[in-house]
Amino acid sequence: MVKGIGVSKVVSIWVVCIGCVLPCVVQGALLTIPEIQYTESADGASPYNGQVVDCAGGIVVFKREAKRPRLVLHDPNATDGWGGIQIKGWASDAFDDVNLGDWVEIEQAFVEEARGVTFLQYWDENPDGSQPVLNVVSTGHDLPRPLHVDIREIRAPEYMPSEDAWIATVDSAERFESMIVQVRDVVVLERDLGKALDNYDLQSFHEPDDPNAHCWGADYFNQDREDEDLYLPAIEVGQRFRAVTGVLEQYTNLGNGYDYYQLLTLSEDGVVGLCSADLDQDGDVDLEDYSLFVEQLLVGASSSESEPCLAADLNCDGIVDATDLDLFNAAWREADVNGDGIVNGHDLD
Ligand SMILES: [Ca+2]
Ligand SMILES: [Ca+2]
Ligand SMILES: [Ca+2]
Ligand SMILES: [Ca+2]
């Protein structure tokens, strides 16, 4: 009897141990991306900076071919930021077997802050002699949708004359580092900014007087950009967009007077122009645009020297007529993805 009770106690202890300890070991061994990225440090550096870690990784949302190629990973479980990280390869073929939508984990990865960005180094050997191991855990994952952010959260740096430097003035951007983010209803105010003079300033066109409602973008990551060009063709001063999407990267080099966050577009789809039926260019297509159209249609408006292409002259042939009406209706229908009768940012969701 006594012996029997003893055996059942042993059995129950084993059950408890297997049930609680094993998952702890697995979870404890592999750090998630947010665990590596989350920081309250003023300089934004990972608490694991300079250490070798095992990272559970995430979905490959971008792969950049280069002498030192990069992977951008996204943890779909991170709904509150801190969910992106970049792996830097040290050979041009380092990621040949990795594709978009793969879930990649990396063991024994050296965490290194470089110019404000947290990298996992995929090189031959870590400083402690260990070697990183990259595993494709699974394939074919859906790419997560970009995170729609308020432009103020990733706002542009401010120029500080006393230091002759451009300084990031917002802590809220750090949580979006290396994540795919999207800003909406923006206009290009200026180009030729930043360290490489390839940054452009995007301002929310709904809040032209809010000095915080703007951010910096750049196309140097963009795989559809012509090599000899600094920008995508659409990036012209005054150009308005319904959405600009890309990976957020920090560039910190106070030695040359810069510390800023920049939204790096990844493909031509990274910039979505206004709908051609958005005649008043305020980011939506509604009855005001329709009234404007009808006004110009009814008078048979035609071009003049001062206005060579009227807003309602959608095919730009010099006159507003039934052909433009067809184009107007087609543009509205095509862009009204959710079918609620209005073309706006919700059609991008
Ligand atoms: Ca950072
Ligand atoms: Ca970071
Ligand atoms: Ca409009
Ligand atoms: Ca026309």
Describe the structure.
The structure is a single chain. This protein is α+β, with helices and mostly antiparallel strands and 349 residues long. The chain folds into four domains: 1-28; 33-138, Nucleic acid-binding proteins (OB fold (Dihydrolipoamide Acetyltransferase, E2P), Beta Barrel), CATH 2.40.50; 147-273, OB fold (Dihydrolipoamide Acetyltransferase, E2P); 287-348, no CATH class. Helix content is 17%, strand content 30%. The chain has helices spanning 2-29, 33-37, 287-298, 322-335; strands spanning 52-64, 70-74, 84-89, 103-114, 117-122, 133-138, 147-148, 158-160, 165-167, 180-193, 199-204, 214-218, 240-253, 258-265, 271-273. The chain has a five-stranded mixed β-barrel. A five-stranded mixed β-barrel has the order 10-11-12-14-13. The chain is elongated, with a radius of gyration of 26 Å. It binds calcium ion (4 copies). Residues 37, 44, 46, 118, 177 line the site of one calcium ion (CA).
